[in-house]
Fold this sequence. Notes:
Blueprint: H1 6-39, H2 43-71, H3 76-103, H4 109-128, H5 132-139
Amino acid sequence: MLKRDKGSDEMDALRNTQMQIIKGVLIVNGCIAIIGLLLISPALPFLIGLLFGTIISILNFRLLYLTVNKAVTMREAQAKIYAASRYMLRYFVVGIVLYISIKADYINILGTILGIITLKIVILKKELFNSKAYFKNIFKRKEAK
Length: 145
């Protein structure tokens, strides 16, 4: 039997979490697409926008992972500059995507925004709202000393 080291177990857990988040985004956006088909006319620009936003959101998520992974191996000053430049690059890409969605008639801006935002919603749902400790801390009475 092969012995696994702690680092590879952590990497597997990280990959697992990333895949769960991406699957969650695809499921939520699939539901949004079905609702969009029923409620929005014409539905095709909305669906294209949703797909466009979803792809960019997932790519940004991946870029964030790569940035953090590389930054932790750098010296502190170098890591700050690197992380800040990558942050600006990711938001510049989102700005370009939103600009294209506004200018292009065949892409619905609402679909694009929903595609971008759902990743954040899925992460909050998975990592924050599923935490019992989070809710215990919110509702815990603060005792006066």
